[in-house]
Amino acid sequence: MNQVRLTGTVRIVGAGLIGTSIGLALTKAGLDVVIEDASPANVRLAIDYGAGRQPKSDDSPSVIVVCVPPDVTASVVSSELARFETSIVTDVASIKGQVLEELNQSGADVSRYVGSHPMAGRERGGALSGRADLFYSRPWVISAHSNSKSAAVAAVEMLALDLGATPIRVDPFEHDRAVALVSHVPQIVSSLLAARLIDADASDVSLAGQGLRDTTRIAASDPKLWIQILGANSNEVAKVLAALSKDLTQVIAALENVDATGSLATIGDALSRGNRGVEQIPGKHGSRNKHYEQVIVMIDDQPGQLAKLLTEIGEIGINLEDLSLEHSPGAQIGLVELSVLPNVQATLIDALTQRGWRIAG
Amino acid sequence: MNQVRLTGTVRIVGAGLIGTSIGLALTKAGLDVVIEDASPANVRLAIDYGAGRQPKSDDSPSVIVVCVPPDVTASVVSSELARFETSIVTDVASIKGQVLEELNQSGADVSRYVGSHPMAGRERGGALSGRADLFYSRPWVISAHSNSKSAAVAAVEMLALDLGATPIRVDPFEHDRAVALVSHVPQIVSSLLAARLIDADASDVSLAGQGLRDTTRIAASDPKLWIQILGANSNEVAKVLAALSKDLTQVIAALENVDATGSLATIGDALSRGNRGVEQIPGKHGSRNKHYEQVIVMIDDQPGQLAKLLTEIGEIGINLEDLSLEHSPGAQIGLVELSVLPNVQATLIDALTQRGWRIAG
Question: For A293-359, CATH number?
Fold first, then answer.
């Protein structure tokens, strides 16, 4: 984390995954962070974890970040604007148009409000899942509106930058169109796919592999949260789904007449278009830590080898950002995947090679 | 790995992920394993990795495992049956009905053939991705047919058991019905979803998060392989897709008239049914190593702590099966997730606690 841009106290309302992660990163960066939540237990956990301090009666935050569920976001933003009369307020809800419309109707001083949406998350929610690097290299949508003060926009942009994220200015309604495609449609498609399993024989489902698990992972998401999101963004989601439905109808017709001329081509086309679609997704596919470089070390599959490797990396003086062990009981070697900052990757490879370690790939 | 059931030489044709993983496990178990591949480089890699030895002219395998792509599976099985006149032959192709039909038409001695399908895989293919524990606790479909000798069925079942898998006897055509639901439909749905991204603005796709990445991961699969699979199982796949298409049409109608009575209920119902569907999938959702237990240790986020922990685990005398590090630069603690065999979990927790380590959860 480089020099911090924000000054003063940052107040976070909502000590879940996002709020706690923001608190961790800003505290680490040296800012005074206040964290609050409807649940005192959540707050204590987040504070123990290093995400900030308890509020005091004379707090005067420069920036307030509202990290609560979408259906209460507008009302919490509105009450924060009223309670702290000079603070800049942002939120992190995954829909932006409807929150803004509700705020406009509430009579709140929206000139100090700029909505935002960090494009980051994890399967596990809650304070203990918080990570200071959750937003690192991630897009962070800044959704200014026609009445936003430029100082408010600048403050929210500094917040994103201080968290290592990449601020992207997107109009609130354009944002909702984009997330329909990249977030809301995948959610409902995953749910519809998983629903096919309800009436299946248990013996059939017992054959499930990783592909089914990945495609249906988000089908386990909270329906209450997602009714809010899909209901608030229904037009945009319906448009994308209608196009998908048309493609699906063609594939079904091809499968039902698989020997007809052109049927295999239709199926192959759908698969190839899927390939091309995936290629549009930026970054290493599925990688969470694309800001780190990997070094894979082959170690003998015997006790003490991993401890020895880590001790030597400590001697070399390089900081590991992440580590995962590819352990196969049968293989005569194990693979240790080390994640390091890009500027030390070559040094680490050289030093380990000199010490006799085998580097893969 | 307990006492091995198979005897004699096992011959593996195809040194990809599956073939290499089988070779690693059987070699480890003490069997004589021959591994062959159309690519000499693949074979060398697999042999270096510990998956078996080069073939000799006088090999007389008891069991042959054909691990080649589906479109050549029947012809390779047929030629292996002809070349080794007493060997039991199985294959691992992901469709079973059509392979059997082709073999029946080929005039091969199918009494010595029993198809099978291990329900295991990885995102990365190739010999170097091989893992001896790939099949551990995984279902392994044994698809006997009306002309299979019982000795052949028994041999293939012993193969699955020797690999730690759970053999499940499923008729070849029933198998194809089940995998339509749990594998083939997820593939085409993932492809259709990813295809929506082709014409999207780059700025929209730049907002992609983990949900889109997971749901579209398998859309990157090889179209050539999947045209073979979907074409060979078209009737079963079409039936499931038609039901999904009907649900999709209802959701689209609800989204297009979101304020109408019942629309939110229709959307909520689709989401809730998705929840129920996911719950049908056995085991910890998304877990690959469900035969291990996890111990999460909280360590101070400072150099040398992980090496110290691993050194002490070595002193305690417990073998780690896997390890992953949850490293957050901002948090004042790091989480180390240790995977161990269930029977040593309690011992490890006790010993680490006594030595002053903090265990999470």
Answer: 3.30.70.260
pLDDT in tens, B42-96: 899 899 999 999 999 999 999 999 999 888 999 999 999 999 999 999 999 999 9
What pLDDT is recorded for position A308? 86
Q: Give this complex's ipTM.
A: 0.73
* Centroid of chain to Cα A33: 22
Give the residue range(s) of CATH 3.40.50.720 domains in chain B.
9-170
Q: Which amino acid is at B104?
A: N
Compute, in degrees rounded to 10, the torsion defined by CA atoms B197, A285, B328, B312.
150
Q: Say how many CB pairs under 8 Å bridge A and B.
A: 451
Chain segment B186-245, per-residue pLDDT in tens: 999 999 999 999 999 988 998 888 899 999 999 998 898 899 899 999 999 999 999 999
Q: Where in chain A is the domain with CATH 3.30.70.260?
A: 293-359
- Closest CA relative to residue A13, chosen from A102, A79, A112: A79
DSSP code per residue over A262-307: THHHHHHHHHHHHHHHHHTS-SSTT-S-TTSEEEEEEEESSTTHHH
Q: In this structure, is the dihedral angle defined by the CA atoms of residues A74, A76, A82 and A85, taken in order, positive or negative?
A: negative
Helical H segments across chain A, by residue range? 17-28, 40-49, 70-83, 97-106, 150-162, 172-179, 185-195, 202-205, 210-216, 223-232, 234-256, 263-279, 305-316, 345-354
Residue A204 identity: D
Instruction: Name the CATH topology of B9-170.
Output: Rossmann fold (3.40.50)
**In CATH, B175-279 is 3.50.50.60:** no
Q: Which two tokens stand for residue B74?
A: 């029947």
| Interface-testing mutation among A171, A234, A272, A312, with chain B (most B C-beta atoms within 10 A) | A234
Residues 6+ apart with CB under 8 A from A146: none
Task: Look at the pTM and tell me if it is higher than 0.95.
Answer: no
Determine if residue A107 is left, alpha or beta; phi over 0 gives left, psi from -120 to 50 gives alpha, anything else beta. Answer: left
CA gap A214, A197 in Å, rounded: 14
> Which chain B residues are Cβ-neighbours of A206 within 8 angstroms?
139, 168, 282
The DSSP code sequence of B25-51 is: HHHHTT-EEEEE-S-HHHHHHHHHHTS
B contacts of A235 (beta carbons < 8 Å):
255-256
Q: Is B109 exposed, middle or buried (0-12, 13-18, 19+ CB in 10 A)?
A: middle
Contact: B256, A238; criterion CB under 8 Å: yes
Q: Is A353 helix (H, G, I), strand (E, B) or coil?
A: helix
Would you state the structure tokens that stand for residue B270, as one six-digit string? 């689709």
Provide CATH 1.10.3660.10 ranges for chain A. 175-279
Taking the CA of residue A85 and the nearest CA in chain B, the distance in Å comes to: 31
